[in-house]
Amino acid sequence: MIEEYIQTGHITRYENEARGIAPGLIELMTIPGLGPKTLALLDAKCHIRSLDGLRSCLDRIPSMKLKGFGAKKAQIIRRGMELWAASRQRMLIGVALPLAENLLAQLRKMALIERAEAAGSLRRRKETIGDLDVLVISKNARRALEQATKLPLVRQVLALGPTKATLIVEGGIQVDVRAVERQSFGAALQYFTGSKQHNIHLRTLAREQGLKCNEYGVFRGAQRVAGKEEAEVYSLLGMPVIPPELREDRGEIKAALEDRLPRLVEMKDLRGDLHAHTTYSDGKATVEEMVEHAAELGYEYVGLSDHSPSQRIARGLDAGRLEEKIEEIEASRKKRGSRGPRILIGAEVDILAGGKLDYPDTILAKLDVVVAAVHSLFRQSKDIMTGRILDALANPHVDVLAHPSGRLLGAREPVEMDFERVVDAARKNQVALELNASMYRLDLNDAMAKAAHDAGVLFAIGSDAHTTAQLDLIRYGVFQARRGWVDAKSVINTWPYARLERWLRQRRSEHARRRSA
Predict the structure, then answer these.
(1) Is residue 438 within 8 Å of 407, Cβ to Cβ?
(2) How many CB atoms lie within 10 A of CB 414?
(3) Per-residue pLDDT at 105
(4) pLDDT confidence of 149, banded at 50, 70, 90?
(5) Are 182 and 193 spatial neighbours (Cβ–Cβ below 8 Å)?
(6) 511: which residues sit within 8 A by CB, 6+ positions away?
(7) Domain spanning 18-89, CATH class
(8) By the 8 A CB rule, do 141 and 181 touch?
(9) Are residues 453 and 413 in contact, defined by beta-carbon separation less than 8 angstroms?
C-alpha cells in the first residue's frame, strides 16, 4: 500500500472501504471518546456531517432515549470535542520546533540577513504553538523579506510589506517574519517573546522607574537608553535576563529582582535516560542499538524499561521473556566492559486497577530501576485513582512514577487525582516524578512540575524512546522541566552513575525498613 501511495497518490483499499462514508464522519472519528460504533449510531439518528452537527445531535440525546447512551457518555464526547477542536488550532512543539529550526537555518544562509531568531511561545517552549514569530536584522529589509517568501519550505504568502512578511510554511503553520533595526533587536526579541502578562509587568516596573519599555527599546523621555540586546532591557530594570521559559508572570520578575532565579536544568546536565524501550516490547531498536546511540549522546547510563505483561498490545514481557532480556543485558555488560554507558535493567511496570504492580516483588527486586505507570482505567474516580497511585508509590521497588497525569495532548485529559497527596507521597517515599519528553505527553505539565519542585520532589526526565532517534527528543522533557522552574540537582538523571546507583539502593532499603517497622 505504501508503494501504491508513493506511485499514484492513492490507496485503493482505503478508498473502497471509505466509499459511501461521508468525509466529515471520517474526520470526526479522531475525536477522543468517540469510537466508530458510537459515531455510526449517532449518524443513523442525526445524519451527522460536521462538528456542529455532532454537537446538535448530542443536545437531542435526552429525547432519543438511546440504549446505553446517557448524560455521562454525552459529556465525555463533548469534552473530547473540545480537546479535538483545540488541538486543530495549535501545533505540538515537537512538530513546530523542527520546522522553525529549518526555517531559521535557511534564513541565516541568506546574504541579506545578519541575524534571525525565533520569538513567541515557541521561544518560551510552550507545549503547543499557535504560530511562529521570527525576527531578522537586514540592511535591506524589503529585499530580504522578498527573498524569504521564495524559500523552499514556504507554501503560501499571505502578506508582504516593507518590514513584515506573513507566510504559510510546510506543515501548515503561519509565520510572521519581522525585520527589526539593529539597535532595537534586543527589545523586539524580548517584546515578541512575551508572554503578554510578563511584558505588562515589565512595563509597569519601567514606568515606576520613569522609563518606557516597548518593542523599540527602553526610553527615558525621548532618549533610547537600551534595546540593542535583550540583556540591556532587563539590566536597566535592575535584574538579570530571565530565561524565556519562565516568562509567564508566575513570580519570575520578583525572583529576578531579589536574585533568586533558579539555575535551570540544561541538556548538557543530563548524564543518562531511565525510560527507553527495545524490541523486547514495543520498541523498534535492539538492546545494542539503543545502547550504542546512548553512547553517541555521551550518556553514562541508559535504563531499558520495557513494558510489563499487562500491556499485551505493547508486547509486555512475562517473567520468562524478562529473564531473557536480563540475560542479554548481563552478557552485553560483560562484552562491553567499561566501554560505553552502563546498562540499567529496567521495566515500565503497570499500576493495576487496585494499586498492585504488574510484577511481584520477587521480580521487581531483580531490576535496577522500576518505572511505574498507569496505562488503563483512566476514568476512575478521583479517590480511587489517587489511592491506586499512592499504593504504587508505597512499594519500595518503585523508583520513578512515569507520565504521572496520564494525559495525551489533544487526545486524553489528565486522570482525576489528588495531586498534592501524590506529591507528598512521592517526597516521603523518595520516588522521582517523571517529566516525560514525548511530544504527545509532556507530562507533568509546567504548573504541576513547579508545584512538585516547590514541595521538594525529585524528578526523572525520560525520553520514553521507542527508537534510537527518539532518544534525542529528551530535549522536550528538558524544556518542560525548565518551564516548571526545575534545577539540575533535582533531576536524578543528571547525577553521576555512582550517585544514582547509591540512591537507588539506599532508597529501596530505607523504604523497605520503614515499611516493615
Answers:
(1) no
(2) 17
(3) 97
(4) very high
(5) no
(6) 396, 429, 430
(7) mainly alpha
(8) no
(9) no
Which are the contacts of 28, defined by CB distance < 8 A and separation ≥ 6? 34, 39, 48, 51, 54
Q: What architecture is the 267-516 domain classified under in CATH?
A: Alpha-Beta Barrel (3.20)
Report the amino acid identity of residue 140.
Answer: N
Residue 433: pLDDT over 90:
yes
Q: What are phi and psi of 21, to 5 degrees?
A: -100, 125
Q: Report the distance separating Cα 244 and Cα 486, nearest Å.
A: 14
Strands annotated E in 382-517: 400-401, 432-436, 459-462
CA 387 to chain centre: 26
- Mean pLDDT across the chain, nearest whole number? 92
The Cα–Cα gap between 93 and 467 comes to: 19
The pTM assigned to this predicted structure is: 0.86
Set of cell numbers at residue 428: 516521603
The 10s digit of each residue's pLDDT in 282-330 is 999 999 999 999 999 999 999 999 999 999 899 999 999 999 999 999 9
Calculate mean pLDDT across residues 413-431: 97
Give the Cα separation of 396 and 512 in Å (integer). 5
| Degrees, nearest 5: CA angle 244-249-252 | 65
Res. 172: pLDDT tops 90: no
* Rounded Cα distance, 173 and 130, in Å: 8
What is the secondary structure of 154-191 as a DSSP string? EEEEEEE-SSEEEEEETTTEEEEEEE--GGGHHHHHHH
pLDDT of res. 85:
66
The one-letter amino acid code at 100 reads: A
CB 168 within 8 A of CB 152: no
What residue type is 401 in one-letter code?
Answer: L
First to last CA, the chain: 62
Beta strand 164-169 with 432-436 is unpaired
Q: What's the one-letter identity of residue 327?
A: E
What residue spans define the domains of the chain?
A: 18-89, 92-179, 197-257, 267-516
CB 342 within 8 A of CB 497: yes
Partners of 68 in the β-ladder: none
The C-alpha atoms of residue 321 and residue 279 are separated, in whole angstroms, by 11
pLDDT of residue 372: 98
The C-alpha angle with vertex 439 and arms to 153 and 444, in degrees rounded to 5, equals: 150
Rg (CA), the chain: 26
Give the distance, in angstroms, between the CA of residue 456 and the centroid of all CA atoms in the same chain: 22
Count of all residues that appear for the chain in the document:
517
437: which 3 cell numbers? 519528553
CB 455 within 8 A of CB 426: no
Domain 92-179 fold: Beta Polymerase; domain 2 (3.30.460)
Tell me the CA distances in angstroms from 436 to 383, 439, 506, one per residue in order.
24, 8, 25
Give the CATH number of domain 197-257.
3.30.210.10
Q: pLDDT band for position 88 (50/70/90)? A: low
* Residue 158 near residue 201 (C-beta atoms within 8 A): no
Residue type, 57: C
